[in-house]
Design brief:
about 10% strand, transmembrane helix, transmembrane
Length: about 280
């Protein structure tokens, strides 16, 4: 499967999660937690004849131009796809499954579930160098030029919309929305870090050749060899250092345990890896 196909599979998963979280949990409770969707919820209050999904399309069209000019064509095309897909799904949900009232009647519960679901979806989309549109685009610009974490950039972009929601729905709803924006920023950063998590593994073992062969032939990964001397044994040692995924680490750990239970292994979490076999720098 090509990388481009994988990108759009992940984007589609994220899009569905964002649309469901918005429509099922946030919109019925008027929780305008930023983004084109939050602004659309506020505008829908003043112009109820226009569905939220339609308003989102108009907002995103304006911001698409900015995405093409400032961020680049690659981000722009994927963002157009993702944001139009979210808007279309929300519009379809409005027509096919109309929700006049909130699902549970508990606004805090709606906020938590809505933010977690949409935040995970946005994190997945962001991780594919795309966005669900709206103020996500301005967040991406802040990230590109000022190197602000995407979650925090989303927070800065969305906080203005929650202020406007106070005029439409009252200060209580606006404060809940502001809490949602803050929670959303943490969820996005957590998801992006989790998706990019890799394990940096250093191994010292008398079964150097077998471990080396396993990493190359079974895991299809490379490694770096260091030469050292044991402080206690005073013997020359070969150290293997490799960077692998969480799943690959589980396989490697099982193999080493079966091969040499006395091996010395250290493991570090790393969230950014660039180069052959990983992300482009």
């Amino acid at each position: 499967m090509s990388n481009k196909v994988k990108e759009y599979i992940y984007i589609n998963i994220g899009v569905v999660m964002v649309a469901l979280g918005m429509y099922v949990f946030l919109m019925p409770s008027n929780l305008a937690t930023g983004g084109a969707n939050g602004l659309a919820i506020v505008l829908n209050y003043f112009i109820p004849i226009l569905p939220v999904g339609v308003i989102m399309v108009f907002i995103n069209i304006i911001l698409f131009v900015i995405a093409f000019i400032v961020i680049g064509k690659g981000f722009g095309f994927k963002t157009i796809y993702a944001s139009l897909a979210v808007s279309l799904l929300v519009y379809v949900f409005e027509k096919v499954f109309p929700m006049e009232t909130s699902l549970t009647g508990d606004i805090l519960l709606e906020l938590i579930f809505g933010i977690v679901i949409t935040g995970v979806g946005m994190g997945i989309v962001f991780n594919q160098n795309a966005s669900t549109g709206g103020t996500d685009i301005s967040a991406k610009i802040l990230h590109k030029f000022f190197h602000i974490n995407l979650g925090k950039a989303v927070f800065l972009s969305d906080i203005v919309i929650t202020v406007f929601s106070a005029f439409a729905f009252g200060i209580n709803i606006a404060m809940y929305a502001m809490l949602g924006v803050l929670l959303n920023s943490f969820v996005i950063d957590y998801i992006i870090d989790g998706l990019n998590l890799r394990k940096e593994v250093t191994i010292v073992s008398d079964h150097f050749d077998e471990i080396k062969t396993y990493i190359i032939e079974t895991l299809d990964r490379s490694f770096t060899i260091y030469y050292g001397k044991g402080g206690y044994s005073n013997l020359d040692k070969k150290l293997i250092t490799t960077v692998i995924s969480k799943r690959e680490f589980i396989r490697l750990r099982t193999f080493i345990n079966e091969l040499d239970s006395n091996a010395f292994v250290t493991v570090k979490n790393t969230h950014e890896v660039y180069g052959d076999g990983f992300s482009e720098l």
